[in-house]
Amino acid sequence: MLALVTGAAGFIGSHLVDRLVADGHEVIGVDDMSSGANVRPGLELWEMDVGDPALVERAAARRPEVICHLAAQVSVRASVADPPADARTNVVGTANVLEAARAAGGRKVVFTSSCAVYGVPDALPVPPDAELRPASPYAASKVSGEVYAATYKALYGIDYTTLTLANVYGPRQTPEGEAGVVSIFTDALLAGRPTRVYGDGTQTRDYVYVLDVVDAFARAAGEAGGGRRLNVGTGVETTDRELHTLVAEAAGAPDDPEFAPPRLGDLPAMSVDPRATREALGWAPETGLREGLAETVAWARERMAPA
């Protein structure tokens, strides 16, 4: 299979490239290199923005069977500060990726969404058929992308699966994005800098390890899960204070964060129900949080070590 991965130099995308190559697939990467820095040696990389019309032309020439679309503007706060910029990447860019799939005669697009689309849910963990309540331009852009994907399926027969991700963490992560707190805690604790927890530390998130996430992408690139939104998470809530304790334990550092006032707009709690994903893709998270954090801290320690 020839697969095209957008955001191929990014946190999740670079791991997905590694997984697809290990599975024996040919992979093309697309990345504008504005934030990603993890290019697999030997990868055929198209250095361009996902909104570039040239993407459609190049895809038509190379004809990838599947496009895994991970490139995105991922900051909720940046989307609030500049909604048009967020939309140019996440809405227009996604439409361009779908048009590239059409021009290529592609079979399927795997679209990356976020648990932010659920807003403040009625119950946890959130099922994939829950009402969508986007509360930021970023979340709205992800809802838009899923609607576009469904529209292309209806018009042109291009299959899609939407993977709605919980808070992904692991090696190669940067502090930006929804699960950036793991990277923030890790870097600060390894460097002996102060750490900060917002509010009283009881805010919860659902943390899922990056290699488990790319396993869901690899499965969704097949025939299963077509036309569906599927949650990729553990269904387990972890408080900010608990997370700090676990990262400090892995780093061998004091578990003594500062506390700051809560940030406006932060959701009090989130976790997603992955049972439908297990049924559709045969997928389940394999990596416990303590194990995943140990791997993440080990990677960060090596990265921060003097040359």
UniProtKB/TrEMBL annotation:
GO MF terms, alphabetically ordered: UDP-glucose 4-epimerase activity
Isomerase as UniProt keyword: yes
Pfam family, one: Epimerase
Domain of life where this protein originates: Bacteria
Enzyme class at the top of the EC tree: isomerase
Residues annotated as domain NAD-dependent epimerase/dehydratase: 3-233
EC number in record: 5.1.3.2
InterPro entries in the record: Epimerase_deHydtase, NAD(P)-bd_dom_sf
Keywords for this protein: Isomerase
Family the UniProt entry places it in: Belongs to the NAD(P)-dependent epimerase/dehydratase family.
Protein name: UDP-glucose 4-epimerase
